Amino acid sequence: MTVTSALLSFALVAGLLTLVPGLDTALVLRSTVTRSRSHGMAAIAGIQVGTLVWGAAAAGGAAALLAASQTAYRVLTVLGAAYMVWLGVSMIRSSFRRRPDEPADADLPLPTGGRWRDFALGLSTNLMNPKVGVFYVAAIPQFVPDGVNPLVMGVLLALVHCVLGTAWLSLVVLGAGWAGPRLRRSNAVRWVDRVTGGVLVLLGARLATTARW
């Protein structure tokens, strides 16, 4: 297997995974619809930085250690599940407390700084999802040609995933950006937060059920 064939083969797997709607899509939709396209792009940037971190961690052995240690994986799973539930509940709560003239994330307890808020949301949610790490642990060893530095190859594979993810989510941002201004003139943004928060709570609860001690 050459580096080129490995990257192309991984691109097929990562591409199929990217097209499946999930948490990343929900977060990008929320940032775009409730704020603007630039905020949606900031969320994408945070998600992709998290992907690169997981790719490097898997290639460097950190994620493999996580997969080998049931205790470490369960701890991260519980933390990730708790974070998703907390974030989801915060979104739902803020949607009821927010006044019509307030920004959509006025009460969301994340770092301040405009678009950095959306970046932090995408990054933290990606890093706190152990299933992303498990995917890289399972995938990267299969796509590292003999004689190639695993860390370098892991970063290259993660970059392929980032390019595909950015391309797809950018299309999501363009579509959501068209509908965003119309929705922001109504109470629809409240329901966007409620639906996204509900998805986060459900995903967090589902993730928690896998962390059995």
From TrEMBL:
Q: Which UniProt keywords apply?
A: Cell membrane, Membrane, Transmembrane, Transmembrane helix
Location (main, coarse): membrane
What is its subcellular localisation?
Answer: Cell membrane
Segments crossing the lipid bilayer: 6-29, 41-66, 72-89, 151-179
Pfam families the record matches: LysE
Topology relative to the membrane, per the entry?
A: Multi-pass membrane protein
- The name of this protein is Lysine transporter LysE
Report the source organism: Isoptericola cucumis
